[in-house]
Structure formats: C-alpha cells, structure tokens
Amino acid sequence: MNIYTVPSGAMRANCYLVTQDGKNAVLIDCGGEEPLAVAREKGLRVRTVLLTHGHFDHIGGCAALQEAGAEIGCLREEEKLLFSSANLGGMAGAPVPPFTVGFTFRDGEKLSLYGLEFTVIATPGHTPGGACFDCGDALFTGDTLFLESVGRTDFPGGSMQQLIASCKKLFALEGERTVYPGHDETTTLSHERACNPWVR
C-alpha cells in the first residue's frame, strides 16, 4: 500500500491518495483540486473519495474530482451537513462547489476498494457524522485525532464529550497504527494513547 499526502485547498488540509495496485486510488478527503494533479503525475486514477467529515476545507475539491469520474461517499449521518451552512464554507468565504454523494456507509462497514479494505469507524464529536478509516496499519482520522491534540468542538454540531469518546474508541483498536490526520503531521496510535493530553 502506498499513501501520498497532498495538502489541499485554502486551509492546506491533508488529503491522502491511497493505492494498492499503482493504478487505482482512493482519496481520503478532498479539500481542493490538488489531488487530481498529483494523481495524474503518479499515473493514478482516483476512483473513490471517502470523506471523514463535511467541513469546507475537506470537501472543497469534490466537484472537480466527481467531474473527473470519482464517486464520493460519506457517513450517512454527515450527508446533510455537507450541503448546509454547517460546512462553514460561507463563514470562511470559501463556498463549496456543488457535488453529489454517490454512496453512504455506516459504522463498522467494510469497504473493499481496488485491493484495499477500509473499515469505517464512526467518530462523532468534531461533527455529528465524522468518520475515520482503518486500513491495514494506517488510520485516517480527519479532524478527530491529531498529534497530541483533538479536533475542535465549537462548531455547529460539535461535542467534546462525543469527541473524547470517539478518540477512546480509536485507542481501543488492537495493535499499532500510523495516524494520518486531517491537518499537521502524522503520529502513531501508541504515542497518542500514551501522550495525548486531551484523552485520559
């Protein structure tokens, strides 16, 4: 499995191109159009976009990816937020170009995509329908879990109580993972279990 980190959009949110066969890719989040250019440079076709949540800095490039042929999916509880003021695009002066959700998924569902298997983990708190994706030794956490930090909960639908419970749910996963967050640098699950000051 190869993972390419692509900072995207005005907020430079981390988006991740994930490929097993070197031809087809899954994109985790899509803050801007940058992943398209990187995928073409690496000879990849983005077939599917999986969204960790619906804030503008993680979905701003979805229209462009959809136009290029990608199907977009999110946790079913998050779908309404994508197309409401709660996506924060209007507040930030960065309205989200319209796109459609091709499929939704639920907590615990396994998604088999081009030789990759992602397990969906519902992680409400940053948003009501936030999700993380567990794939091999990689854990894509969006804005739920960061290096020694957690996501904000002061936006519409946020809940610190839910977010901490979601992080503890991630900590309960067996074994080690490299954590690929929606912003800033990677970390590991073992480091966060031991050092994250927000989750005790």
Radius of gyration, Cα only, in angstroms? 15 Å
Largest sheet: 6 strands, mixed
CATH architecture annotation:
4-Layer Sandwich
Which percent range describes the beta-strand content? 25-35%
CATH superfamily, called what? Ribonuclease Z/Hydroxyacylglutathione hydrolase-like
* Major sheet: arrangement of strands: 1-2-3-4-5-6
What is the mean predicted local confidence, pLDDT? 96
CATH top-level class? Alpha Beta
Order of SSEs: EEEHEHHEHEEEEEEEHEEH
Q: Can you give keywords for this protein?
A:
20% helix, alpha/beta, 6-stranded mixed sheet, Metallo-beta-lactamase, Chain A, 200 residues
Structure, explained:
This protein has 200 residues and is of the alpha/beta class. It has one domain (2-195): Metallo-beta-lactamase, Chain A, CATH 3.60.15.10. The chain has six helices and 14 strands. The chain has helices spanning 34-41, 56-59, 62-67, 79-82, 160-171, 189-195; strands at residues 2-8, 13-19, 24-28, 45-50, 71-75, 103-105, 110-113, 116-122, 131-135, 138-142, 145-146, 149-150, 178-181, 187-188. A hairpin with a 2-residue loop joins strand 11 (145-146) and strand 12 (149-150). The radius of gyration is 15 Å and the shape is globular.
